[in-house]
Amino acid sequence: MGISIKGVDMDSQTRCKHYHSNEDVIAIRMGCCETFYACYKCHEELSNHQAMSVKKTDFHQPHVLCGNCNYILTVNEYITSKYQCPHCRIAFNPNCSLHNHLYFEQTC
């Protein structure tokens, strides 16, 4: 079975209508889905349910897809990646970290 990736006006590297800079090349599998979405706004537009962040206990699970090489990172790998795919070395957008609270459970 292939990887399911959805996004609004998404290109082959997972850039979408909402985020489409050269570095916007990740898709995230939310805690509520088996589908990867280009961004949380795409999830809001295309899914039929409310988004749930990935629980901290699942940070060792694969949830972040590199749109360049299709390598799937765990949340822990992604958070410590220094905004670069550990497999193909393409740069990730560092501003995505501003939305981590939407994707990944936060602890105080």
From TrEMBL:
CHY-type domain location: 9-90
Coiled coil: none
Keywords: Metal-binding, Zinc, Zinc-finger
Biological-process GO terms, alphabetical: protein import into mitochondrial intermembrane space
InterPro entries: Mito_Tim_assembly_helper (IPR052604), UCP017292 (IPR016694), Znf_CHY (IPR008913), Znf_CHY_sf (IPR037274), Znf_LIM (IPR001781)
Pfam family, one: zf-CHY
Annotated GO MF terms: zinc ion binding
SUPFAM superfamilies: CHY zinc finger-like
PROSITE patterns hit by this protein: LIM_DOMAIN_1, ZF_CHY
Protein name listed in UniProt: CHY-type domain-containing protein
Highest classification ranks of the organism: Bacteria, Bacillati, Bacillota, Bacilli, Bacillales
